Amino acid sequence: MIAPYCGAAPLPAEWLSRWNLDPVLIVALACGAALHLGLLIRERADDRNARLALAGSAWTLIALLLVSPLCALTSALFSARVAHHVVLIAAVAPLLVLSLPQRFARLRLPGVAGSGAFVLHMVLLWLWHAPAPYAAALADTRMFWMMELSLLGSALLLWLAVLAPAARLGSAMALLLGSVVQMGLLGAVITFARTPLYEVHLGATAPWGLSALQDQQLAGLVMWVPAAIPYLIAALMLLVGRFGAGLADEPAR
Q1: Would you say 197 and 141 are in contact if contact means Cβ atoms under 8 Å apart?
Q2: Which segments cross the bilayer (predicted)?
Q3: Do 225 and 82 contact (CB within 8 A), yes or no?
Q4: Which of 81, 87, 71, 12 minimizes the C-alpha distance to 220?
Q5: What is the pLDDT of residues 7-65, one digit of tens each?
Q6: For the purposes of burial, counting CB atoms within 10 Å of the CB of 190, is it exposed (0-12), middle (13-18) or buried (19 or more)?
Q7: What residue ranges do the domains of the chain occupy?
């Protein structure tokens, strides 16, 4: 009997009451957020308030993903699980990197380390969305956390390389483009599969008005299109920031 960490697949009528009140998780999130925000509060930096806001946003998103009824919804719908993963790697991860305390700025990975981070993240993303490893993660809490933490950890390494102050613009743009392409390919594979690939969701999607195949196709579209948006926004911000800085450094005529 499969027992997902977020609980059995909920019915629409009960979904909003299905909060995950795991005390270990709540204590871990509270301690992590308190430590992160505490380090920022103790700093004296011009951008401290901005980084506090980014950190608060990151930890709020983590709580929404793992504590709110959205956690239970991922047990019913593969599309919800994919959306969960997209938010984790494309929103939470860059927010955490951008809100790092200044004393940890050296952790940002410039240069060739970015290529390794990209390959690692791509391998893990494809691995955990393959049917067998995905089913194992839903059947065992330890595997579930291995999936969640490895996806977030590899995404942090990737965003550390992309957002490194010393990173070359071309390298950062290549990492972002590569991320969009490989996620789009994964989304296409999921979308155009002719049969349901994820047996753990068979029967759980019907109360939500979707067949397992329709749910899978929706998940593929989420991975294919909306998932690209944060990477494109990051690329635009990097371009504006670099070219804006270059114009500011030009001597006035």
Answers
A1: no
A2: 24-41, 53-76, 82-100, 112-131, 143-162, 174-193, 218-240
A3: no
A4: 81
A5: 999 999 999 999 999 999 999 999 999 999 999 999 887 888 999 999 999 999 999 99
A6: buried
A7: 15-243
